[in-house]
């Protein structure tokens, strides 16, 4: 009798365990990747310096693009007189937005500045005529710095920073001198390093950027049908 009962019970249980009635998770790989992303990971000093470079590149590239775009618009609208007040990339909304996300600040310094407040003594090694040179450093436990040359690689810039009487009209230079009496930012030619971009970044912003840049993202799978 006991054997018969066991057999009957087994017959009742087996239909409930058929493979076609079990619900399988279709995104187990994605869930595993997401779980790994949420794990607390130790960020090494070299990782923070790598993220400092990423953040500096992002902020200065944004500043470069916005500066060229806005100055081109203003020069077309009203020449040097219209463009002169806009040669301040750190104040542009898009640049400021990126700086806030990265918890950083941007400046442009030069040994021959237009504004004397932007003067800095720079070594020849800092003024190599290529914008691919990067310098990153950790100043303290909470502060990182990034620097790269500002290279004149757009002919539009010569209208304000080239040679007076050749690239810069005398009337335009009179406007420049009126606003910047101590101007030294002329006499440049294409390919010259005019100064350097400097970026200061906080550790929290650098660490967050490293975490996001190294986060694994699953590619969407194509549907089977």
From TrEMBL:
Pfam families: Tll0287-like. Residues 105-200 form the Tll0287-like domain. This is DUF3365 domain-containing protein. It comes from Hymenobacter fodinae.
